[in-house]
Amino acid sequence: MEGAGPHLTSGVKGNWTGLYQRFLSSPNFISWFSVRKEEANQKLRLIHLDQLCKADIGFWMRDKQEVEIVDFLLQVKECLSRATRQYPSVSAQTVHTLQSQIRTIISSLPEDLQSCLKSSFSSP
User: Fold this and answer.
1) Recorded GO terms, molecular function (predicted)?
2) Angle 24-27-33 (CA atoms, 0-180°, nearest 5)?
3) Per-residue confidence in pLDDT tens, the chain, 124 aa
4) Closest listed residue to residue 107, CA positions, set 93, 117, 122, 98
């Protein structure tokens, strides 16, 4: 509080420490914190989707074993499913790019595994 508290940006003088202590122990804090935490998590998920879209999947897969690739595939699929359910603001381009990434991953796997996965991943 001393080095970066609100007294540096506000001309109002008072017991800032006491005010924040009361706020942190009040029921309002839990509600406020929950909302802020969800906003931050949503932002992180959207950034994660953006980074998945930009990733060079082929380069990443070069030294990975089959089980690691399938695990990653499942994670990407889950991220895409969750995003389309929870965040209608996810762009159609992002969805299309992630679907393309999923197809790239599947096509890198052996034929028998590809046929199994293609039926499971036909609709994101």
Assistant:
1) guanyl-nucleotide exchange factor activity
2) 60
3) 555 555 545 656 667 778 888 989 998 999 999 999 999 998 898 899 999 999 999 999 999 999 999 999 999 999 888 888 887 778 889 889 999 999 999 998 999 898 888 777 765 4
4) 117
Query: Which token pair is 84?
Result: 């389309």
d(CA 25, CA 43): 27
Residue 16 tokens read as 């800032």
Extents of the domains making up the chain: 14-120
pTM as predicted: 0.69
Residue 42 burial by Cβ neighbours in a 10 Å radius (0-12, 13-18, 19+): middle
Nearest to 49 by CA among 21, 78, 69: 78
How far apart are alpha carbons 4 and 16 in whole angstroms? Answer: 12
